Amino acid sequence: MAAAAKRTLRIGLIPGDGIGLEVIPAARQVLEAVAPHFNLSFSFVDLEAGWATFEKTGAALPEVTVERLQGECDGALFGAISSPSTKVAGYSSPIVALRKRLSLYANIRPVKSVTPTTTSATTAPRPAVDMVIVRENTEDLYVKEEKTYDTPQGPVAEAIKRISAYASTRIGRMALDLAAARHRQRASGIGPTSIHSPDAATLTITHKSNVLSQTDGLFRESVRAVYDADRTGGPALYKHVKIEEQIVDSMVYRLFRDPSTLDVIVAPNLYGDILSDGAAALVGSLGLVPSANVGDGFVIGEPCHGSAPDIQGLGVANPVAAVRSAALMLEFMGLEGAAGKVYEAVDAGLAEGQVLSPDLGGKATTKEVVDDILKRLA
């Protein structure tokens, strides 16, 4: 019988600014290393976006980058952006624009602690964490519709917060599907161990509808409607998912006070952004936390950290978030086996705690961390 043909995937690489230029090549190395284990091969398309691109070309997201992603690529990896903190004429965030242009309506951010397996591990003990934050990616205050006007008391600035039933229903379904999948994985005993019960998964809707009754109220009601329709005559996709709610300010308290109780969280854009950065502190560093911008036909892996200009060029950036983002990209492309092998290699290194970057209390360089992952993949 003839051997199965090797599957070739074309991946767009957008390093962006700062340490994105260092961690995206690291993620590429890991993809190339895992490919032979699963009869895969990767080809890569080098693309530009970011502040340096804006300074060079006048466009933070060149049209050719979008066209090549849409026309040539099966998925992509995005590094980091050095966005200015003050208004610059003609500049807007390229990753926000990409999410809208490619309809990447969900930002998926898994946050999981790894327990050291040796007493010599340099990582400090961390709380038990195994959660996924599902952030709506296209609306809320990130529609970036602002204005400033004068009044007798001085200037007033206003921003539009937009929430639609369409986008909220769509992200609610994504979050519920993810919760149901996590239950199936835990119930089967296949895959990584979890701190959560195998009997059910829990989805926590995060909002502030006690104050923002129309916008956050619509988000809350839309997510609940997906769940209620399934339970009252639907296909029973979510029969093993429990649903709960949490006001966003009390959610911040719970996140730090009792993170082990949180499983899947769904939130509007701004709350999801804030909660996921806070959750990163629970596991030690933003340099550990991956994300994926997911739509119905495309995915872009993106580490949660920023461009970190203070360590750019020093060779000490933590590549783990970018590597895990590459694995998350593979997972949403249907390549769970390849993704799992990458996760296992990364987690084994973190558990041993011998090759850690400075943000985790170690002294390893970016190259040394990558080499350790590659050795484990081999």
UniProtKB/TrEMBL annotation:
Gene3D superfamilies: Isopropylmalate Dehydrogenase. Transmembrane segments: none annotated. One of its GO terms (cellular component) is mitochondrion. InterPro entries: IsoCit/isopropylmalate_DH_CS, IsoPropMal-DH-like_dom. GO terms for molecular function: homoisocitrate dehydrogenase activity; isocitrate dehydrogenase (NAD+) activity; magnesium ion binding; NAD binding. It holds the Pfam family Iso_dh. Residues 10-373 form the Isopropylmalate dehydrogenase-like domain. GO terms for biological process: isocitrate metabolic process; lysine biosynthetic process via aminoadipic acid; tricarboxylic acid cycle. Belongs to the isocitrate and isopropylmalate dehydrogenases family. This is Mitochondrial homoisocitrate dehydrogenase.
